[in-house]
Design a protein that fits this description.
InterPro entries: AttH-like_dom_sf, Ceramide-binding_SVF1, Svf1-like_C, Svf1-like_N. It is a peripheral membrane protein. Strands 1, 3, 4, 5, 6, 7, 8, 9, 10, 11, 13, 14, 15 and 16 form a 14-stranded antiparallel sheet that branches. Strands 17, 18, 19, 20, 21, 22, 23, 24, 25 and 26 form a ten-stranded antiparallel sheet that branches. 8% of the residues lie in helices and 54% in strands. The chain contains four helices and 26 strands. The chain has a single domain, classed as AttH-like fold (Beta Barrel), CATH 2.40.370.10. The chain is mostly beta strands. A hairpin with a 5-residue loop joins strand 22 and strand 23.
């Protein structure tokens, strides 16, 4: 019966049978032997898998002028039958609080460069420098947001464990799915994002994340927490997902703390807790109102970091199925109990990151970009 359910789930995207937590080999297990690995250019290659997957390279920006924005390429494939790519950009509070400039455009004639660290399509190009320290992002795909950006890494990039990957499947030697995240936690951005009303000077801090969900997204995770906090000295990032009941509601949390030229900590011993929630009347999901995040390393030189505070009014509530490529929408749109919603929050100098390195303790206010995602 499980085989029948599994086959139906793979084809139709319906709920998977209950395999239990032993059916996921989390990256946490790798991190017990090797907490993290610094990224090389080879680690940033596009996978471009020809089976069901969603692969993204996403850049988050916090400008010196106080503007938060992002740029993203999505590569998606369903069952090896069809591949689609999308370029997304978003400028928050473009016309005032709560009015955002959002562009999402399908891409034609897409492909990868010879090293597979770069991506191209009609009117879009993403390239990584030979030394692996700098991305350039160019897009003239949508006249509502023309992008010309340079992102330079200012601290080491990392992936947790040996390869940053959690594997799904009842046979560890033959997994049927995978998930990874690779980070540049601290980088500098320069350039412009040009709309029809304004040209934004995008100079400031950046975070880059290369992610892969090598299976149907709603099978891989039911909930997500993402935190990006930037202070003058520190960058703190965290990505946490919780699997559906099929994989035992297993929680995997990867993250790190960096400052210029140095990765202070990276690993899996992190937590994200919603201290207060309220029921969103539109989606009926528990919208978080206050957050507590902790990063901890006890071996070697101890590191403890804590971020806690009220999230305030959300910046946006995103109906995922209204913004993703149709091919992904068709994967999950008809599944009972699946309604992907992202609650997004932005705060500036309202929250404080407390960092303790050995005997040294510091506290700094900074800017937060945070997402809480509910899928099923």
């Amino acid at each position: 019966m499980n085989w029948i359910k599994k086959t139906l789930a793979d084809v139709a995207g319906t709920q998977e049978p209950i395999y239990g937590p032993e059916a996921i080999q989390t990256v946490t297990k790798q991190a017990e032997k090797k907490p993290y690995t610094e990224l090389t250019p080879n680690d940033l290659k596009w996978e471009g898998k020809q089976h069901t997957n969603v692969e993204t390279q996403t850049f988050y920006f916090m400008t010196d002028e106080g503007v938060t924005c992002m740029a993203q390429i999505i590569y998606s494939n369903v069952m090896g039958v069809r591949t689609t790519c999308q370029f997304n950009s978003k400028i928050y509070d473009h016309d005032g609080p709560g009015k955002h400039q959002w562009c999402s455009d399908p891409l034609d004639n897409h492909g990868f460069d010879e090293k597979r660290t770069g991506f191209f399509a009609d009117d879009v190009a993403l390239s990584l420098s030979d030394d692996g320290t700098t991305y350039t992002i160019k897009s003239a795909k949508n006249q509502d947001c023309i992008c010309n950006l340079t992102v330079k890494r200012t601290a080491p990039g990392f992936m947790v464990g040996e390869n940053g990957t959690s594997y799904y499947g009842t046979d560890p030697s033959h997994p049927w799915g995978e998930m990874f995240h690779k980070f540049w936690p601290r980088a500098a951005v320069s350039g412009t994002m040009q709309t029809k009303k304004k040209t934004y000077n995008v100079n400031g801090r950046a975070v880059f994340i290369h992610a892969l969900q090598g299976m149907k997204p709603h099978h891989a995770a039911a909930r997500w927490n993402f935190v990006n906090f930037q202070t003058p000295t520190y960058s703190a990032v965290m990505m946490e997902f919780t699997t559906p009941p099929s994989y035992g509601k297993t929680v995997v949390n990867v993250g790190g703390i960096a400052k210029d030229g140095e990765l202070i900590y990276a690993g899996c011993t992190n937590t994200a807790t919603h201290l207060a929630v309220t029921t969103d009347p539109v989606s009926q999901w528990p919208e978080p109102k206050a957050l507590l995040c902790k990063w901890t390393r006890k071996d070697g030189k101890p590191v403890e970091a804590e971020l806690m505070g009220d999230l305030g009014e959300r910046a946006d509530r995103v109906d995922v199925l209204a913004h993703v490529p149709a091919i992904i929408k068709n994967l999950i749109g008809g599944v009972v109990g699946t309604k992907p919603i992202i609650f997004q929050y932005i705060t500036k100098d309202q929250m404080t990151l407390k960092v303790k390195e050995g005997d040294n303790e510091t506290s700094e206010k900074g800017s937060l970009f945070c997402e809480a995602t509910f899928i099923s």
